[in-house]
Amino acid sequence: MMRWFEDVTGRVGTVQIETLRRILESNWGVEYLDRWFGPGIRIEEVEPTALESLYTSLVPLASHANFEHYFQRIADGDRAPILTRQPIELLSLSSGTTEGRQKFVPFTWHSARTTLQTFRLAAAYRSRVYPIREGGRILEFIYGSKQFKTKGGLTAGTATTHYYSSEEFKIKQMRTKSFTCSPEAVISGGDYRQSTYCHLLLGLLFSENIEFITSTFAYTIVQAFRALEEQWRDVVRDLGDGSLSQTITVGPMRASVLEILGSPRPALAKAIEAKCEELAGRDWTGLVPTLWPNAKYIYSIMTGSMQHYLTKLRHYSGDLPLVSADYGSTESWIGVNIDSAAPPEKVTFAVVPTFSYFEFIPLHRQRSSHGQNGCRFAAPVDDFVEGEPVPLSRVRVGQEYEVVLTTFTGLYRYRLGDVVEVVGFHNGTPKLSFICRRKLILTINIDKNTEKDLQLVVDKGSERLRKARGELVDFTSHADVGKQPGHYVIYWEIRGDVDEDVLRECCREMDNSFADHGYVVSRKSNSIGPLELRIVESGTFKKILDYFIANGAGLSQFKTPRCTNDPVLLSILNVCTINRFHSTAYTAD
């Protein structure tokens, strides 16, 4: 795998043209391409040097909205070659946490194959830094979600669900010589609480054999360990008795776990009980190396909205390395982490040039022009000024870009909405740092604050919380324009007995920490009101998780929305609010 990657990244320009040609030739004649190319062009006769310019001059940039009616026709049973010549039998659903609703994206054999390639390639690079034993076990907190049939008879579900049920998932374990603890009946059980309990139980059953711990997102690992804090006595009892808690009611899951448990393990149960009692006495610090002494690292997506959970993950992991997993989306895999020793905050992703044809839109941050009273003279229509898209081989270090994909699964010049920065190269392929989602999440007036801006503000505000021995469990936000002037609302779920004066300081600190010039000017002129911090009761964010899962999302794909206008979510948050604080920043002395 590494030799192959060294080869393709050494000739990125050629490989990308070959990839574009393969995509177009395999889907030539489909309705979408015919719309732009028209008759008379024979793609196989186009010279390689002219292929990119021909394609990008004829086919426009597009967003999901431009493809949505095509996806719907496919879902409704239209079998014509609309986007791909090969019939699409599976549709992936995005998590819905970013846009507030789930979206269809085609899933094909190529999707499963590139997932397998990504896992194998990343495992090869990780093994250079953290070698693992062949035949060892992986504690994987992975979850399939409910699948359903569309009007046209296609199977729809999350991309992770499709992958976990594919042959490639079984091949991955054989090729990487590491095997998940949990059987398929646990992964696809359909109840994430029951699946989590069984993952933990089997993980402790094989505690001496666990080589590493993983999940799609860091959030899921943190949630699993929080569940262990509450349920460890039940887990210990089941190990000692060779039984299974009556809370596990899904038949196939129950039967498969009991079969693996076999006979009672009183010695193992007693040893784990002693460790858990010790851990409980020190607030579960170093949980992972204590319970899984041979684990080499924790592996998960830890960038973007997952950065918030790093503090808690480090609390659990002790000195065990945290390795950030690879960069992809429901639409396509993009890059792999080939620098496993890098901390999650500094992770980069080397683009795999065979997965898709990549373009990058240069993005230049612009400053608004403001009058002395905060009046805007030149109103920006977006948060960035865009340049002309460039191919993968022409990106520059230090420049920020939006990623554009052309995929084997029928997406053409598809704007992903991710902002990345090129921070270096591996051979000829760029190494990307994920910056944020393109979409502005908090804006009322002339202010513009992204998910990354919000994360920095919350990090700053929660420093005072940590000093007071409090813990920020999770957070989200909302731009409240119901009354004038509008203002930002940040919702916190916290642990610990924290004095109200401390929370007032946290609120003020967050308000002061927004560095966006438009926000500062608007606050000073009172065209944006004081920031409001709302404290919600314990378990509120689990209610949000339950809401998404009840509507078809899978735990493996769940990300807490960092900003929401969803009326159902806002209702949950507001009903669960137990205290409110308003910032005193920007008030006259």
UniProtKB/TrEMBL annotation:
InterPro entries: GH3, GH3_C, GH3_M. Keywords: Ligase. Residues 350-437 form the GH3 middle domain. Residues 453-567 form the GH3 C-terminal domain. It comes from Punica granatum (Pomegranate). Pfam families: GH3 (PF03321), GH3_C (PF23572), GH3_M (PF23571). It comes from the Eukaryota. GO terms for cellular component: cytoplasm. Transmembrane segments: none annotated. This is Indole-3-acetic acid-amido synthetase GH3.10. Belongs to the IAA-amido conjugating enzyme family. GO terms for molecular function: acid-amino acid ligase activity.
